[in-house]
Amino acid sequence: MENVISRRPFLKIAIGAGLAATFARAQEGKPAGKKVGWALVGLGSLSTNQIAPALQKTSHSRLAAVVTGTPEKGVKWREKYGLKESDVFDYENFENIANHPDVDVICIALPNSMHHEFTLRAAKIGKHVYCEKPMAVSSKECREMIDACDAAKVKLGIAYRCQFEPHHMEAMRLAKEKVFGELSHIDAGFGFKIGDPKQWRLRKNLAGGGALMDVGVYALQAARYLAGEEPETISAIETKTDPEKFAEVDETIQWQMKFPSGKTANLYTTYNLNGYNQFTAFAENGRFGIKRAFGYNGQNGWTSNPEIPLEFPATDHFQVQMDLFSKAIIDGTEWKVNGTDGLRDILACEAIYKSIAEGKPMEVEKA
User: Which residues have a Cβ under 8 Å from the Cβ of 349 and sit 6 or more positions away?
Assistant: First the structure.
């Protein structure tokens, strides 16, 4: 194969010229002055087990405040992280964060339907926003969030952590630089067997959708950034094995995306089984992919040519993405995974749901 290069030069090029530079930017010594202060809105499992612990490991970020609707949680977080009483807010007095001198970023880790409200409220008080995925429950809300942050001249980041994970970054490079030739097809999927039937993820008014909005967007994102273009048309089908449990939201969806260049993608998401968590990219001269692709850890990359490995040390996804966002604030640089990126996912999701409802392929609205 024309593009085959030996393992040692490959690692030197890939890590030295690309990935190492990215992680160095996140970890290099901060300039004189304070760290970027983050306020966490919503103290559920994600904030408790991933976001807050990762903040303790960052070089340019720190936990400056929390927002919770449960006073008992506020007390526990104050004790655990050394916060003052004035660092704890509730949803009603959220706007008082405007007067907190150490808060620069509002990190929104709430149920999906609340992302829109708190992004607008954060922008109104002049704070940068880092919003968990999916960005919102409709493209209309996404556009309003973008407009609000643009008007307030604050950054809007969407927490697609995989875009800063080294295996995914290298897969993007392999696709973009056509190391295996022109990419033609992508197969991707993410799902798990969901438990408690009373949880918010199964309520449409809170989640906006089911497996697709929760974990299917990871597979959707992978197809988009591997293809390097936006889908033109989408055809989708939905399956429900438990209509009562999934009365309000989707359980399992399979969909095909066609891109302007002729590339295609077959994608899958489900709340009905564990272990579906991978992508494979097919090109003219080989294949590459990641097993356990979208979890918080355990990425296992592979290629069809042993001379071109896809192997990197594990990272804390949350630590890296938050520090890079803080660095972008410090340096005044653009943030790549912005509101427009989040909007494009939701536009694709809307086309998926329309295709299911109407039983035919649907065009994807442009951002």
Answer: 134, 209, 212, 213, 216, 217, 220
Strand partners, 282: 185, 287
Q: How many residues does the chain have?
A: 367
Q: Which domains, ranges and CATH numbers included, belong to the chain?
A: 34-159 (3.40.50.720), 164-311+338-363 (3.30.360.10)
SS (H, E, C) the chain: CCCCCCHHHHHHHHHHHHHHHHHHHHHCCCCCCCCEEEEEECCCHHHHHHHHHHHCCCCCEEEEEEECCCHHHHHHHHHHHCCCHHHEECCCCHHHHHHCCCCCEEEECCCHHHHHHHHHHHHHCCCEEEECCCCCCCHHHHHHHHHHHHHHCCCEEECCHHHHCHHHHHHHHHHHCCECECEEEEEEEEECCCCCCCCHHHCHHHHCCCHHHHHHHHHHHHHHHHHCCCCCEEEEEEECCCCCCCCCCCCEEEEEEECCCCCEEEEEEECCCCCCEEEEEEECCEEEEEECCCCCCCCEEEECCCCCCCCCCCCCHHHHHHHHHHHHHHHCCCCCCEHHHHHHHHHHHHHHHHHHHHCCCEECCCC
Kindly name the residue from 160, 218, 268, 353 that is annotated as catalytic: 218
Cα dist. 69→74, 115, 194, 337, 366 in Å?
9, 15, 25, 29, 37
Active site residue 133: yes
Active site residue 218: yes
Given this model, what pLDDT does residue 353 score? 98
Find the mean pLDDT for residues 137-164: 98
Residue pLDDT, tens place only, 84-125: 999 999 999 999 999 999 999 999 999 999 999 999 999 999
Examine the pLDDT at 10 and tell me if it is beyond 90.
Answer: no
- pLDDT grade for 34, boundaries at 50, 70 and 90: confident
Half-sphere exposure of 338 (CA within 13 A, CB side): 16
Residues 216 and 249: their CA atoms lie apart, in Å, by 13
Q: What is the pTM of this model?
A: 0.91
What residue has token string 């303790």?
56
Among residues 35, 133, 155, 327, the one annotated as catalytic is: 133
